[in-house]
């Protein structure tokens, strides 16, 4: 649905003394149809710049951006405006017009596309129902809570039936419960409407809750990307480690410490118990986390096995054989 | 004080009529051109919707600089000097420089830059996020100016307008001294030159009442328009 190829964006200096900021340094990214794609990264990594390039709010320095089969970078201004009707956008600070009621805000995009009044009214009522705000149509944004404002923002973005929804930190100014309900809503809309969502966040929790795929951006480059479940089974994945922080407990010297990652049906199996039974060893659990990531139960565990890596070769091989990702952190000292 | 109302009332009524006439005419032009200049000042600035008209950033910068320069000139001349300087121009377009209609010319020229700067401030207060949201929805520049910038700034613009009306009232009194007529003229001619304090005080009261009413109405309208 979205294909980004060799995208560069630099900001030229405002005056002679300034330096050029290279915000994006060659981004390649594909967001498949119907996905919820999360882009994570530290502040200043280039997340917002990347997202704003997708609907060309920011014109790339070079590279191409294809949305729904159309290369946006080749479009003239008028065609670009039309293309934007098919790409909804949600903002951290909602960006609702204070002079308009909730319904009028939702209708704004339809006004731009020239939909007549009656049809606008009907459509705004429809999408407001969808986001659970059917009864607040005539309120003004200032009369709503943050979560409700974001629902209006989402309704506005959806009013024109876009194929793609872009979200820049949509939940970052909301409290945890409200964040939860907005994430649920996005997931629900993705499921029922089939809208592809590309979202930016600095909270791993958001990725954990709703994303099917994710990419990590560092210093303007994508350092990791892919299906979340696949990432969890990828050795040394930074995203996986960020999703599952296990603490620093390292075990006794001379013993073997391994980390295992498991997803899907394996998460339901009593791995540790079976291992100690099968091989007669005392397995010590140093850390463990089991969570639901994009509707899959996945877990990560740090285990301490008595003795050297060599002496544990057979149990480790057995774990790998059963489909688990196993990483050996330290062997006998 | 011994006031002859029978004489005074018609004189004052005529003067109030003249004041309203010159301010009214000036106000119409001030609103139209002040809004236009204010919008241009904001939109041709860096980051504005017309920062690069016809694709040229240079052109945007030039328009912005020239407009700002002219506005500053208008703002830097004391009204009385502006009025004198404009006499040939006023004569050219009205045929005379005496009377309320003629006075509307310098009043308009003085009020446009003043109102335009206030409009500029009001438009700059509109959150850039709103413009960004409109752009993301595929809005044209015109839509952004009308439905985002001007629509959101309406309460501030109404207040800016009342400030401008009050300034115009102030200027109109000065205009009165060189033949425009109006309330200021009465205050000077009867109050100052003839030492008739009853005229002086009555005109002061009238001016105070007008200013209070303008401000009251503007504040009420602004409050109604504002949903922040
Ligand atoms: N308009 C601009 N002009 C100059 N530099 C900019 C501009 N916008 C962004 N940058 C620079 O580009 C880099 C990436 O910024 P960006 O806003 O994309 O980061 P981000 O990942 O969204 O950060 P955050 O999590 O804080 O929002 C930063 O170094 C920033 O200073
Ligand atoms: Mg950002």
Automatic annotation (TrEMBL), chain A:
The lineage of its organism: Bacteria, Bacillati, Actinomycetota, Actinomycetes, Micrococcales. Belongs to the ABC transporter superfamily. InterPro entries: AAA+_ATPase, ABC_transporter-like_ATP-bd, ABC_transporter-like_CS, ACT-like_dom_sf, MetN_ABC, MetN_ABC_transporter-like, NIL_domain, P-loop_NTPase. One of its GO terms (molecular function) is ATP hydrolysis activity. Residues 2-244 form the ABC transporter domain. The keyword ATP-binding applies. GO terms for cellular component: plasma membrane. Keywords: Amino-acid transport, ATP-binding, Cell membrane, Membrane, Nucleotide-binding, Translocase, Transport. Part of the ABC transporter FtsEX involved in cellular division. Has ATPase activity. This is Methionine ABC transporter ATP-binding protein. One of its GO terms (biological process) is amino acid transport. Homodimer. Forms a membrane-associated complex with FtsX. Pfam families: ABC_tran, NIL. PROSITE patterns: ABC_TRANSPORTER_1 (PS00211), ABC_TRANSPORTER_2 (PS50893).
